[in-house]
Amino acid sequence: MKYMIPVLTGIIALISLQSCGDTTRDKLTNIQQILEEQPDSAYILLKEIDYNSLDDEADKARYGLSHARTNLYMGRSLVADTMLVQSIDFFKSIGDTTSYIEASIAQAMHLRVLDRNTEASDLIESLSSEMPVNIRRQLNQELLGFSFADKDFEKSLEIIDRQIKLAENDTERLDFEIKKIIPLISLGRSTEAVAHCDSLFSLPYAPAAGSDEWLYLRMNYAGALGERRETAAKAVTILEDIIQRMGNAPASRLIEFYIPLVNLNMNAGDIEKAEKYLGIIDKSGIDITDKDVVAASYLDFLKITIDYKKTGALSLSRITNVAQSLRKVSKDLETKKQERNDALESAYDLSRSNYELTIRHQRMWIVIILIVFMSAIGIIFFWFLSRKRRNRLMEAEERIDTLEELLKSAANPATDRKQGLLKRLLLQQLGIIKAFAEAPTAQNQDALRKISNIGNSDTPIDSLVKWSDLYPVIDELYKGFHEKLLNKYPGLFSEREIQILCLIKGGFSTKEISVLVQQSSNSIYVSKTAIRKKLGLQAKEDFMEVLDSAR
Predict the structure, then answer these.
(1) How far is CA 145 from the centre of its chain?
(2) Are 431 and 461 in contact (CB under 8 A)?
(3) pLDDT at 15
(4) Vertex 216: Cα angle to 212 and 222 (nearest 5)
(5) Please, which residues have CB within 8 angstroms of residue 293's CB and are 6 or more apart in sequence?
(6) What is the pLDDT of residue 437?
(7) Distances (CA, A) of 338 to 329, 332, 335
(8) Half-sphere exposure of 507 (CA within 13 A, CB side)
(9) Residue 320's closest CA among 311, 308, 328, 312?
(10) CA 212, CA 235: separation in Å to the nearest integer?
(11) Which residues of the chain are under the pLDDT cut of 50?
């Protein structure tokens, strides 16, 4: 039975582990690890967690941030992410700067969804002053995106100037310098934009001619030149040079340059050349509306403008058609967005169902494994019990044989007189032996009847040897052996060891001694070894000689 306690403890622990499953904290950790690469899976795991049931402030903060980031990566609205304020406060209080910044940026985007753009910008601005340079660059980048989206180009220029001052190297500095061109053009400061481009081309770290950075700068330069009639022709020359450098680029890529060339030629007053590029676009066979709705509408307005320049009449029907097309496109975009969200929701629900089905299958297999495991434990347990019972029966049989041999020896006339007398006395004390009663076989009953014919039937069942009666007999037969042990070696031997020594002195075998003192044969050998050690003898020395020689 002593082996069953740890086994049962292991089973209970295994069942408890299964019943508990993954903790909420484990799920949140898993969500953070897979969020960027598998936002859909993170979304499914988040739906497994009830925010209102969370007690730990850290778990609430992590849930709020993970929920917002999941929506961002999946292109979903952050309108429902109202728990971000608590996340910001918590991460700030524990000094987790990375999570604090991420939660603040997500909160700013949440505010923008609610059309609270100024509050969103103020929130990001408030963080910059307390952050190191690398984080300030990140925050400025977010602010720059906000300003472009709001078409607040004055703010864009201010932020770009900040980034130029914080730039780590010339390449990064040049990148932000180029970003200034579009805000300048959008603010009607094309002359300043042109001068800025000229200054960039003369910088020591200006991009090499023909490089991608150089072509990008030239394109922006052309945009700045094209805003004024007197410089529009130069802008056309720049774009045509870029097209020539692109070589055998596909028509779909060149269309991006042909449409601006129509506008630039119109600004330069060259209507014929503008119509030439319109013809190239039409012959390309590319459906611009399918490729880019805004570009297609822009091209339609250019065509309307060219017709107006040629005829002097403005076609209101064509303008109306373009407006209706844009309205339809806007409506279609909203419909597609809604359909996309509905499809995503359905896909997530399906994934969730598959996830739950997988979990159920896993749990079913765990239950099956537990049943098999517990069945195996049961089989081992019953095998152990049967083996233990079998050993007990074998021990009982051995005791029977030993007692029968003891009985024969006591009745044998050839047995030493003293030994025979002592053995008969012991047999008289045995009575009904408890070990035999526990295994009442026919052979045991026969042995019990033989012992009963010699022994005293009034002897209590629990008493095999009455040592208080036996010790005086030992002293009488063997010249005070027991008394000498007590006097010569006071307190050296235990009561059990004294009993064993007296029986050895009486000529009893190890098996007989084991029966009489109710110990196994191995225990008797261990006791003999202990006696030798107490007497300071070696393993093969006969301690009885030492004891007999004691005076």
Answers:
(1) 35
(2) yes
(3) 45
(4) 140
(5) 325, 326, 329
(6) 41
(7) 14, 10, 5
(8) 14
(9) 328
(10) 18
(11) 1-9, 11-22, 431-439, 444, 447-463
